[in-house]
Specification:
The complex is a heterodimer.
Chain A lengths: L9 H28 L1 H4 L13 H7 L4 H4 L14 H8 L10 H9 L19 H6 L4 H5 L16 H9 L2 H4 L3 H6 L5 H15 L6 H8 L8 H13 L10 H4 L2
Chain B lengths: L19 H13 L6 H27 L14 H12 L1 H12 L9 H22 L25 H34 L3 H11 L6 H34 L11 H27 L8 H31 L3 H12 L4 H13 L13 H27 L15 H24 L5 H24 L1
Helix pairs in contact in B: 1-15, 2-14, 3-5, 3-9, 3-13, 4-5, 4-8, 4-9, 5-6, 5-9, 5-14, 6-7, 6-8, 8-9, 9-10, 9-13, 10-11, 12-13
């Protein structure tokens, strides 16, 4: 028998080491989980620099320009559409014609080269997202995009992770019934028209006169309604438009 | 000195004129005297490591190109990958049976074979585990198989037997590894104390985790070992039952059979014991361990092989019976057109010979101790068990309900390369194990020796030392 290399204190070291080895993978896993959900990865509320510092807050809230004035195809196409330089120039050939901030717009107009905007909201290529169907079933822009009407430089409003999409695809009634008060005010309007009526109501009546659901939407942290009345209104829209809830969360709905 | 040979009961489990010291040294010299490993070890290790290199190359090429480099394609979406997975998983079962069930049944003859059988279990499960992970096509996403809260809001499909597989195999691996390690601790302590160089003392000292052989240590050790044996015992039956569900749950002809679970489990133990003997016989021969792994051990292992072989053979006969008795046209067509005749028929008949006919030689007591015969039969059994999975997988998949399924399956070069590669990995790990870890459970053999009547000696030895 040779002499021992380890002293009795090594036992305590070993015990601590075992605890660390057991806790290590758990901590790494939890950290990765936290990181993948944090804005560091999702870019939620992280403004993205653009060639022209365009402000939605100014154009939409302060000036009251409708979303569809620039995003023309949002109601009938998969893509909402990024406005052409001509759209910008329809006003900016008259106002702020000498603003240095708008120099890239004028350059683009003169040379016929489109402005290369940086994409803020993006889904992976294997997701077939369609704007028109969502708008036509009465989803408000802010439901997904957050408080765009308050953004100076545009940022992502939500993570666009699959778990986030499925919150609505598994329980659409929680997200569709927000317009029940607007519906009473404009009984002949379709859910699609009501989606944009919210901004009109905001302009004419001001933030303080909106219903609770509408206020949440305008502030941009809408995470579905849980009260019975709103869900009931949502169910009516589901019923009326034949939204097939039993298929809505199938893989093939978004991944073809 | 009391001689073991004088005892009548279990007289042949430890032979020769042994003392505690001689038992110690006959096992630990494999590690402490590294010069003992000669050319044979080097050659086998070189073969093993080269084939492991081939495995590395085939995995790299697979990841680079995708699983299109394999031969499996619709209709036979399962090919070599699943055949080899099932084959390797099966081989591991003998180790678990020896270490868990024989322990609970207090069969002390397990003591000198359990260590390397358990090592084989772990290495075989490692080889097996590679296949389903690579079969997914995107192994970097393999963690999706586990239920964990994720940003996809997706949960595994628990109604699928493939998910049961994930649970069964990962439990099997972790329990086997813990069982193996716990069993090694007292032996690590022996090696720590006997090591003369610094490396041995530090490495084995770390692995022994402060084992001092105190009464309390032994008490806790015994309790834990028994609990782990209790945990492992259901695994012997459950793992391969669940693997068989991958097939039996489906409606493919030749798969949808209730006999599959017992027939798979028996096949696994059958293949496992054949592999234990394939390694055990050369091991005891080249490292002079015949006094610890005796002819009686080999004889009993042959008997288990024969018994499980008969269950497997019964399964084959039952397959023939139900294909007629079920009255299902496709079952009968599978039997007549794909198994008995057709391009794959030689493989079926070879299977019947290897697993059904060849082991029958073990009815004769003489051949249960005749090493060359045992080695040949064990090799045939390993081949036969591989053929069994071939008969089950591509043969059923290429003879299905639709004419479009009638397209033969051929493995590609990379299928074969990967299979030889996993064999290489297994050889490499076994060779390293033989050289650096105690191949026989030293303290359990000493315990057996004590129970066999070596009790007197301990007094004598202690007396001599003091």
């Amino acid at each position: 028998m040779g002499s021992q290399v380890f002293k009795p204190s090594a036992n305590s070291v070993a015990q601590v080491a075992i605890i660390c080895i057991a806790a290590g993978p758990l901590l790494v896993g939890l950290s990765l989980a936290a990181l993948s959900r944090s804005p560091a990865n999702t870019k939620v509320n992280v403004p993205k620099n653009q060639p022209v510092p365009f402000s939605h807050q100014h154009h939409n809230w302060e000036l009251g320009i409708d979303c569809r004035y620039c995003h023309t195809s949002v109601e009938k196409s998969a893509f909402a559409g990024i406005p052409s330089t001509e759209t910008c120039m329809s006003c900016h050939s008259q106002i702020w014609t000498n603003s240095p901030l708008l120099e890239p717009v004028r350059q683009s107009f003169e040379t016929g080269t489109p402005i290369v905007w940086n994409k803020v909201n993006k889904v992976p290529d294997f997701v077939y997202f369609n704007h028109s169907i969502h708008v036509n079933r009465g989803l408000n822009c802010n439901t997904c995009h957050g408080p765009v009407n308050d953004m100076h430089i545009t940022a992502k409003g939500n993570s666009f992770q699959m778990a986030w999409c499925l919150q609505c695809h598994r329980n659409p009634e929680r997200y569709l019934g927000w317009s029940k008060d607007l519906h009473k005010e404009h009984p002949s309007d379709t859910p699609r028209q009501l989606a944009f009526k919210l901004y009109w109501k905001l302009q004419t009546k001001g933030k303080s006169n909106l219903s609770p659901a509408e206020t949440i939407l305008v502030n941009g942290n809408f995470e579905g309604a849980d009260d019975q009345a709103t869900k009931e209104a949502g169910r009516e829209i589901v019923e009326k438009y034949g939204i097939k809830t039993q298929q809505l969360a199938d893989c093939g709905v978004c991944h073809r | 000195m009391a001689k073991v040979q004088d005892r009548k009961l279990n007289d042949l489990l430890i032979t020769g004129d042994q003392t505690y010291t001689s038992i110690d040294s006959s096992v630990d010299r494999l590690i402490l005297n590294q010069k003992l490993h000669g050319k044979g070890w080097n050659i086998l290790f070189l073969i093993g490591i080269s084939l492991t290199g081939l495995l590395g190359v085939s995995i790299f090429w697979l990841l680079y190109q995708g699983i299109g480099i394999w031969g499996n394609n619709v209709p036979s979406a399962w090919g070599f990958d699943i055949i080899n997975f099932v084959w390797w998983i099966g081989i591991g079962h003998a180790g678990t049976l020896i270490s868990a069930i024989l322990l609970l049944m207090r069969q002390q003859w397990r003591n000198s074979i359990n260590r390397f059988a358990e090592a084989m279990t772990i290495f075989a499960v490692m080889c097996a585990g590679l296949y389903p992970i690579l079969h997914t096509g995107r192994p970097w996403n393999a963690y999706w198989l586990f239920p964990y809260p994720n940003i996809l809001a997706m949960w595994p499909q628990f109604r699928s037997p493939l998910m049961w597989d994930v649970a069964a195999v990962s439990t099997y691996f972790s329990v086997s590894a813990v069982f193996w390690f716990v069993g090694l601790i007292p032996d690590f302590a022996t090696l720590r104390d006997k090591s003369t160089n610094k490396y041995g003392k530090v490495i084995f000292g770390t692995l022994a985790m402060g084992w001092r052989g105190s009464n309390q240590h032994w008490h806790r050790y015994e309790q834990m070992y028994l609990l782990l044996a209790g945990l492992s015992t259901p695994l012997v039956l459950s793992v391969h039952s669940i693997v068989s569900f991958d097939f039996a749950i489906s409606i493919v002809p030749g798969w949808n059979v209730t006999v599959f679970p017992p027939y798979f489990v028996a096949g696994a133990v059958f293949a496992g014991f054949a592999m234990v003997m394939t390694w055990g016989l050369p091991l005891r021969k080249f490292y002079n361990l015949k006094h610890l792994i005796t002819d009686r051990h080999i004889d009993w292992m042959c008997k288990i092989t024969l018994a499980t072989g008969l269950i497997v053979f019964y399964g084959y006969l039952l397959e023939i019976f139900y294909s007629w008795y079920s009255g299902n046209f496709y079952e009968f067509k599978l039997l007549m057109k794909t198994r008995f005749t057709g391009i794959y028929a030689p493989m079926y008949w070879l299977l019947i010979f290897c697993n059904g006919i060849a082991p029958q030689i073990f009815w004769v007591p003489k051949y249960r101790r005749h090493e060359p015969t045992i080695i040949v039969v064990c090799f045939l059994i390993s081949v036969g068990m591989w053929l069994e999975r071939f008969v089950i997988i591509p043969m059923s998949l290429t003879n299905n309900y639709l004419p479009s399924s009638d397209k033969p399956y051929y493995p590609s070069f990379w299928d074969v390369a990967m299979f030889t590669g996993t064999i290489g990995l297994f050889i490499t790990l076994m060779m390293l194990f033989i050289r650096f870890l105690p191949v026989i459970n030293i303290f359990e053999v000493k315990d057996l020796f004590y129970k066999m009547g070596g009790k007197k000696e301990i007094v004598e030895e202690v007396g001599a030392n003091s």
